[in-house]
Amino acid sequence: MLRVVGPGLLLACALAAGLTAPRPSAGQPAKAVAETDAFFADGKIPNLVIEVGQKESDSLRREPRKYVKATLKDGDKTYADVGQSRDMSQDAVREIRALATYRFFVPRIFDYKQQFSLNGGYRLTKSESRSDSWRRVDNPLVTDPFNEANALNFRFYWDSPRPEYKQILSDPNKVLPGRWVNIDTRGSMTKRTLRYGSLFSQSAFFNEKLAISASVTKDESNVDSLPRFGSTGAPNYLNVLGSGAPNVHVKRSGGTMSTALGVVTYPIPARNQGMTRWLSPIGFVVNFSENSQQPSTGIAPPLITGEPAPTSNAKTLDFGIRYSIPGGKAFLTVSHYNTDQEDIVSGFGSQTDIRNIWLNLGYTDPTRTTTEFSYSDLSSRKLEGWEVELTANPWRNLTLTANYSHPLTYIRSESVYRKAYVAEHMDEWKAGAALSGGAVFNGRTILNSQIIRDSLLNIENSLNGLTTGTLATDSTRHRINFAARYAFREGVLRGFAFNGGINYRSHTKSGSRDAQIKFNTTTPTVAQVRAAAFDYLWVPPTYTISTGANYTRRIGKYQTRFQLNIANLLDEKDPIWGRNTSSGTNGQAYTVLTPNQLLNGNPRMQVLSGFYVLEPRKITFSTTVSF
Fold it and tell me: Quick one: residue 208, left, alpha or beta (phi over 0 = left, psi -120 to 50 = alpha)?
């Protein structure tokens, strides 16, 4: 990290931010910078520290006049950069739907009841987005106004009460040096059409002790999008939309057909005596369903076979038991689900290394040696687990709900096409890597065999690092939710209700043991790398408690509801490892520290580092009036 300390750094800060400008002419009034005047009029000698990260420091050593991000500190105060931008988005939806239902009843055939529902529709969705921000257009150091060096950033002093930035945001030309223009920085337009139709059948027999449902759904989706291509340039800098060229549309279409089948049965006759009375509410459920993802607005590269990248699809089979006590006193469901998710589209790995190999083997075909070698790859996952849901109403005023789940997600396959492609060409690549530069191989002259060997090593390390069959990161062993609500329905407190709940997540997987640490070696074998992938790392359990109360009554003609909610009731401050937002996932909990990275002779270590902390206890009061 580069540190610059001293009192005379204000000018240096301005230069690094690209805010230098020619002196105003005699007829042009100088622009006042009140913040600078106040700074020098303060009288004290400031102790400013500019901290630049290692990456930015290396960049400055190569190009001293290059713009880099830095952190400015004054004593124990850290000043943050605040930027300005406007984001606009609008959506328009037009939809036509139709539904037809036909029912009939044939009592003499096992109390047969039948219902058919035919559903169809058309939906047109138009979306448009646009962003703009103030940018400097006459910076002599960085001429591109879209470069972040020309963005409008200013210091936000957190200890200053109610700061006023109206002049800066409305027109920075009045208060800042240089010429500033409000330019378009992002934008896109998308039109999506969806035609769909479904036929649903529900059959019931034996006084509804046996119910069979089935459905067939077909839909066709078309997406027409215009991403941002560039800008019109000076003087207005408006968006130019198009893919690769102005006004070139990206069109994707796809159609799917899915089916579903379900059976629910209560096989034990209902009687009001003996054990049958308690066993008759037991029901058994079996469901099968399949679904496919709709085409996205993005452009996924094709598969290496030349086929377009498919849309992901999934098949689910679940079965369970239901138990229902008459009168709504309690309802219990225990179920097991098993989902196979196929055709998950991702990038084709090792593309740069593969291009380097072909190039240094003497190939000139751009489909092998340039960015034309760009493809998608496929993977698949299995999701399975148990779920238990309970709803109980022991009294008229009290409702209890509880949910338990034990979800598991496994990686079934990954990098399917990359593995096949590498296996197909590996013999040729290794044969070329064994030769020296300038040798003729397969009628072509080898350029640099060392690059071939390095690229082969990168590819092998990447493939050896795949964790097919392992438990997916962010898989939680157990999840439990419990909630209770008590409502007063009569008496003086009629209209009052109180509620509370707890959410618990047990140990969660966040990565695997580092192979070098696990086997105490700096050169783990392929077998050791794969073994380490199944040695999972877990983060501690977490829980949150929320509560609230509400009061509802009619005031005049209007129904009015007063609501009080308390989030994080116990004001928990413990870190939630492996999370990067309040509800997000995929954050990294563990970091590998290399030997002596802490400059204290530390060995190679895996330590907890990535976490999220809940917001402090928050109390919210709201009022809702229904007209």
Answer: left
What contacts 347, CB < 8 A, 6 or more positions away?
Answer: 301, 376, 377
- Sign of the torsion formed by the C-alpha atoms of 595, 597, 600 and 606: negative
Q: Which of 283, 280, 113, 282 is nearest to 213 (CA)?
A: 113
Question: H-helix or E-strand containing 557?
Answer: none
Is the predicted pLDDT of residue 11 greater than 60, yes or no? no
pLDDT of 505-542, one tens digit each? 999 998 899 999 999 999 888 889 889 999 999 999 99
pLDDT tens digits for 51-86? 777 767 776 766 665 556 677 676 666 655 556 678
Whether the CB-CB separation of 590 and 607 falls below 8 Å is answered with: yes
CA 546 to chain centre: 25
pLDDT of 66: 57
pLDDT digits (tens, 9 = 90+) for 45-56: 556 677 777 767
Helix (H) or strand (E) holding 58: helix 54-62
Q: What's the pTM value of the predicted model, to 2 decimals?
A: 0.67
Q: What is the pLDDT of residue 99?
A: 95
The sign of the dihedral angle between the CA atoms of 324, 330, 331, 336 is negative
* Contacts with 334 (C-beta within 8 Å, 6 or more apart), sequence order: 320, 321, 386, 387, 388
Structural tokens at position 332: 């219990």
Phi, psi dihedral angles at 559 (to 5 degrees): -80, 125
β-strands 376-395, 398-413: how paired?
Answer: antiparallel
